[in-house]
Amino acid sequence: MKWGTRVTAVAATVLAGAGTAAAAGPPVYSKYAVTGTAHIAKPDVDLELGPGQFDMYTLIGPYTFYGTITLPPVHVSRSLPGVGRVSGTVTLGPGHAEGSVFGGFSGSATWPVTLSDLRVNGRPYDVGPDCGTAAPLTTELTSADFAAGTGGRLESTYAIGAFENCGSATPLINAVVPGPGNTLTLDLAAAG
Q: Which of 55, 94, 101, 130 has the fewest CB atoms within 10 Å, i.e. is most exposed?
């Protein structure tokens, strides 16, 4: 065998081996039931989340994942100083999540946030169908005790950006909601 042919054969063998190691088959699907809480720091409001679902796809080998977290809308009612009783429905997500489950859980999720059925002291505000954060919020989710196929608790601290397209209520919402120091806790449990 000539030198050039030998090098080509070795290179082909190495590349074939690398391709085999990287291609560990199709993603493995897991379904988790999701419950949790979100604390919105500025108005000091707690949201009870769920029950929802996390449809997760894990690539075996690199142990990276992607998926969708779906949560039901949450009704919120809170008295705010100088404003009165404010209520509305918050829809978080669906959230697109991706990251790693190698030695725990480390990932991020991006969530569109919308607000509907806003009322101040019982008076409805027409915020329209597009009232929400100008950009989806991002939560960096971590868990040291997460186990694939079992679940675990995911936690995050995140910021909420400005809202837009909320009609005359936009200044009020932006005065009492956006800001840093919000927290999110999601409990995942294997489901079917």
A: 130
